[in-house]
Amino acid sequence: MKDTTTFSIPVLFNVHSFQTDLISWYLSIKRDLPWRLNQDPYRVWVSEIMLQQTQVDTVIPYFNQFMNRFPTTYDLANAEEQDVLKSWEGLGYYSRARNLHAAVKEVVASYDGEVPHEKDKLKKLKGIGPYTLGAILSIAFNQPEPAVDGNVMRVMSRVFHIEEDIAKPRTKKIFEDVVREVISHDDPSSFNQGLMELGALICTPQKPKCDQCPVQEHCLAYEYGNQTDLPIKSKKKKQKQTDFYGLIIQNKHGELLIQKRPSEGLLANLWEFPLMPKSELPIEEWFKQHYGADLSVNAKRGQVRHVFSHVIWNIELVFAQVEGEEIDYGQFVTADQLKEYPFPNVQYKMMDEIL
């Protein structure tokens, strides 16, 4: 494999024909998705943030309820963070929601609520990386900017037979340069969405539907017969596993102890049942140190496993009773009140075991 940092479009590659075939196909088959009703930059922005690392079918109901709740940049900017997180609840990768909220506040404060169309202004907003920047500029503002995600890298690696490891950060720049060379300047919105749609529906990771591909005649990997060998992607490091006790603690009124997670880090500002890292320290002693109250453990039963992108949590559920009324951290709520707070999916798995 060549170790290069640049890639040149083949001299005989018919860029205009490739653009025409891709755009014509896209316009004829594009899915009826709620964020495609118009090119409103705010709607495009919200959809692209939600679609990061999340399937389209999963995003659709979240997008609809989110836009109903926060239909304009002003509505989102004026919302409380806990309300935003509650609307995002279950979608995962919650830093996306917090960054979107912060960035929209900046749009309202600095740009009168209008999403800026200038590249230098847009890329300074929190949470907008190269892909989201290109998606907004091309889809909403018809600017010929590349929007390169995993789908696009897979399509272009096959079309141009690019043998660079897409797991390496520097490789993305190669694909951005390639897309910038071949993108339609007449309809960049349809071109970029066409590449995304092609990767999602036809040029799939396994068993690509080459017989249905609108750009088959342009595809070098198809010509060579090794399309399933591309893209090249090195394996990720094995995920770390962390073991916890999940403490299901009631007071004498039958209320449950929950707490808000720190404002930084994984699952920031969401709510949870207390999680105790497993160690040689007795649960009762650990709880006394951290919460200032005595605890009586009733039983250990039930296991919950949750996989994040970089770590796996293994949680053993512990049912316990707190002595007295005062604790130093957290708050007690009824089972009915739990639905008022934004919880991450891992905590809902715990709820399924106890409610």
UniProtKB/TrEMBL annotation:
CDD domains for this protein: ENDO3c, NUDIX_DNA_Glycosylase_C-MutY
Enzyme Commission number: 3.2.2.31
Gene Ontology molecular function: any one: purine-specific mismatch base pair DNA N-glycosylase activity
Pfam families from the UniProt entry: EndIII_4Fe-2S, HhH-GPD, NUDIX_4
InterPro entries: A/G_AdeGlyc_MutY (IPR005760), DNA_glycosylase (IPR011257), Endonuclease3_FeS-loop_motif (IPR003651), Endouclease-III_FeS-bd_BS (IPR004035), HhH-GPD_domain (IPR003265), HhH_base_excis_C (IPR023170), MIG/MutY (IPR044298), MutY_C (IPR029119)
Entry keywords, A to Z: 4Fe-4S, DNA damage, DNA repair, Glycosidase, Hydrolase, Iron, Iron-sulfur, Metal-binding
Cofactor(s) this protein cannot do without: [4Fe-4S] cluster
Superkingdom per UniProt: Bacteria
Major enzyme class: hydrolase
Cofactor binding description: Binds 1 [4Fe-4S] cluster.
Location of the HhH-GPD domain: 50-201
Catalytic activity: Hydrolyzes free adenine bases from 7,8-dihydro-8-oxoguanine:adenine mismatched double-stranded DNA, leaving an apurinic site
Family matches, as PANTHER family: ADENINE DNA GLYCOSYLASE (PTHR42944)
Protein family per UniProt: Belongs to the Nth/MutY family.
Protein purpose: Adenine glycosylase active on G-A mispairs.
Protein name as it appears in the record: Adenine DNA glycosylase
Organism placement in taxonomy: Bacteria, Bacillati, Bacillota, Bacilli, Bacillales
Encoding gene (name): mutY
